[in-house]
């Protein structure tokens, strides 16, 4: 029975959204700090001030619903409603500066910020003609999109206040029993890597502003660049190596980073995802290197340099590139890139895709099933995989859950690819482009751009949104909204 003094149900949801709305408004205002260094962009400040302050004020008023009051438990799937609602609000509010500038319509603005929050990197912005303020705005969104809205809030809230929201946003591990400390450790590690990336980029000749943009883009596996030709602009092996390292760090589960920074390398490298990702990179790089040598008549070092960068960029779902155009790739190379994009990065990381953990489970399940055909029928086998700190047993229900998710993911992939193909694009290009959007990669063959039809951009928007929050969370939020409307008259 609910305590009369407890806040629960819709008022509790309303209050939580208010707290997150304050954070969204603050994030919208943060890029204005760059005006100290680029005062020539001050005429664009008004595009940020209005939506930022309004979001903070509305969020502040909404938060009074729960402030100073005892909070009840969120009912089943209400956490999903909060997370999905806040991500939608974050996308809309941070899109307003683009829309208010008069250079982008509603669809284009939402596409750009969906790409940022989802850490995709697909863009309708011409970076050669865009101010430092707007470029920093994109990267600020990218930074917080990589960490996650809820995780930032959890760094200052109690465990009870944020734990279910934390799980609903797609985080499956806690570094420590205390959620606040876990969130702060993740943010500290994430920020430390970003700073290290900036220092390394600058030391290898990259301008400071570009270094900030690319360090955030690589670590968040988002891929936004300040240059039209991305990392290829710098023609530097050192910069490419730094980028590869940052992309790989962004690809790793947040929990595994704690073992890495503590120097527990044995635990780190025995993690099934880490080993699986390196196997994929080695095999894919070898194949694409050979394909590049045959297609472009390149020598081995040159072909290997391009191949390993693009393989890592695709698998980690970052989207940086050193190739001028993906139209030049052979069908074989493009197919491998599509597969890598669909597999994606580590579960609980900033990367998107089906996730390496799920693919690893399915591959192991195939091996277990084949082996089971040779065992006596009465034999009972225990199937385990290696996590960072322990072995865990995989049940049949776990395999079924993973299989269902992968089926839904591929269903959305084929549906999105079909929609893009209706606009006259080859099925190969459509599959590459939509796999990039759904897996939040950002590599593009040019289908989604500033002049793309509205439906093409909205196809990309839905793909990026489902890819970032993962399918179940959005479906659960929609079903719970429907139930609340039906039974309680609550409008979501």
TrEMBL record:
The answer on whether this UniProt entry bears the keyword Transport reads yes
* Topology of this chain in the membrane: Multi-pass membrane protein
Q: Where are the transmembrane segments?
A: 12-36, 48-68, 80-100, 141-162, 183-204, 234-256, 276-297, 332-354, 405-423, 456-478
Q: Which UniProt keywords apply?
A: Cell membrane, Ion transport, Membrane, Transmembrane, Transmembrane helix, Transport
Query: From the Swiss-Prot or TrEMBL record, what is one GO molecular function term?
Result: monoatomic cation transmembrane transporter activity
PANTHER family listed in its UniProt record: TRK SYSTEM POTASSIUM UPTAKE PROTEIN TRKG-RELATED
What family does the database annotate?
Answer: Belongs to the TrkH potassium transport family.
* Annotated protein name in UniProt: TrkH family potassium uptake protein
What is the organism of origin for this protein? [Eubacterium] hominis
């Amino acid at each position: 029975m609910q305590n009369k003094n407890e806040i629960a149900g819709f008022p509790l949801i309303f209050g939580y959204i208010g707290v997150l709305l304050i954070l969204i408004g603050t994030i919208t205002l943060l890029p204005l700090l760059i005006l100290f260094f680029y005062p020539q962009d001050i005429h664009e400040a008004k595009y940020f001030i209005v939506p930022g302050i309004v979001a903070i004020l509305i969020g502040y008023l909404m938060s009074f619903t729960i402030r100073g009051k005892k909070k009840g438990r969120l009912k089943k799937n209400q956490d999903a409603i909060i997370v999905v609602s806040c991500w939608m609000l974050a996308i809309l509010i941070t899109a307003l500066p683009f829309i208010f500038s008069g250079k982008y319509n509603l669809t284009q603005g939402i596409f750009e910020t969906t790409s940022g929050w989802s850490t995709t990197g697909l863009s309708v912005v011409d970076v050669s003609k865009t101010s430092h303020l707007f470029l920093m705005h994109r990267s600020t969104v990218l930074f917080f999109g990589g960490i996650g809205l809820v995780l930032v809030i959890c760094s200052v809230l109690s465990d009870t206040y944020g734990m279910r929201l934390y799980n609903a946003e797609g985080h499956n591990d806690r570094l420590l029993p205390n959620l606040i400390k876990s969130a702060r450790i993740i943010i500290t590690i994430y920020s430390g890597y970003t700073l290290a990336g900036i220092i390394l980029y600058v030391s290898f000749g990259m301008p400071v502003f570009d270094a900030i943009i690319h360090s955030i883009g690589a670590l968040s596996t988002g891929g936004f660049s300040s240059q039209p030709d991305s990392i290829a602009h710098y023609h530097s092996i050192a910069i490419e190596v730094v980028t590869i390292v940052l992309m790989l760090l962004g690809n790793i589960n947040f929990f595994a980073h704690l073992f890495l920074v503590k120097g527990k390398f044995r635990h780190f490298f025995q993690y099934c995802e880490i080993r699986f990702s390196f196997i994929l990179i080695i095999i894919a790089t070898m194949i694409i290197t050979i394909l590049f040598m045959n297609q472009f008549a390149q020598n081995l070092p040159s072909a290997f340099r391009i191949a390993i960068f693009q393989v890592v960029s695709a698998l980690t779902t970052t989207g940086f590139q050193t190739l001028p155009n993906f139209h030049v790739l052979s069908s074989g190379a493009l197919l491998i890139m599509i597969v890598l994009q669909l597999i994606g990065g580590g579960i609980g990381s900033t990367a998107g895709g089906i996730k390496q953990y799920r693919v690893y489970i399915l591959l192991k399940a195939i091996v277990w099933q084949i082996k089971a055909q040779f065992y006596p029928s009465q034999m009972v086998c225990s199937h385990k995989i290696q996590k960072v700190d322990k072995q865990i047993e995989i049940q049949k229900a776990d395999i079924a859950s993973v299989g269902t998710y992968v089926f839904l993911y591929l269903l959305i992939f084929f549906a999105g690819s079909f929609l893009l193909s209706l606009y006259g694009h080859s099925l190969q290009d459509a599959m590459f482009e939509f796999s990039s959007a759904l897996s939040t990669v950002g590599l593009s063959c040019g289908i989604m751009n500033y002049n793309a039809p509205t439906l093409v951009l909205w196809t990309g928007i839905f793909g990026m949104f489902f890819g970032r929050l993962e399918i179940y969370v959005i479906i659960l939020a929609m079903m719970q909204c429907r139930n609340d409307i039906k039974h309680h008259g609550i409008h979501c």
